[in-house]
Amino acid sequence: MPPTLANRLGTSTHLSPLLQKAKRLGVSSPEDLEEIAITRGLRYFGQTHRSEDDPYAKSAITAYDPKFFTNEELAIALMSPALPYSLTRLRMAAAMLGAENISPLDIYRLARHERCELVVRYIAECASKVEPNNLFWSTLLEHLPQSQFTPPDVLPHPSRFVAMSGLDRTGRANRSQWIRPTS
Question: pTM of the entire structure?
């Protein structure tokens, strides 16, 4: 069995209430969470393979509906320390945190319950450097505890959360833009 994010961070894995909720809504694997994120606009990470004719899609339709499984819940579920370690899922979680109308207080509350405050703080610190005027990131950082030591090479490099341009016509390089879901 592959190591969990909790194992890689040097903490213990716990039974996740959020993943249990997702399971009740028909999400049976971490890949299903990724699929939901893609259907909610994270096309940067690929195309959805979901078909309306797929019997699984019909049985799990509530998990695809933000009324039943919010974007805040999806973001935190993607970075759950109880899931197998995946840099792609962590990047998707960071992108979902950048979705419109996300509540920083809901993110903080969920992160506390899911024991992933360290990961959320790391992402928020990275994002606040890219988007220093974005009130969401500063509000989130105000509520999260100061980060402890993060083992090196466990969380993605900050450049993996952004799309960077090359040289533009003015000769300026590397404009960074936070990757987030599109409508």
Answer: 0.87
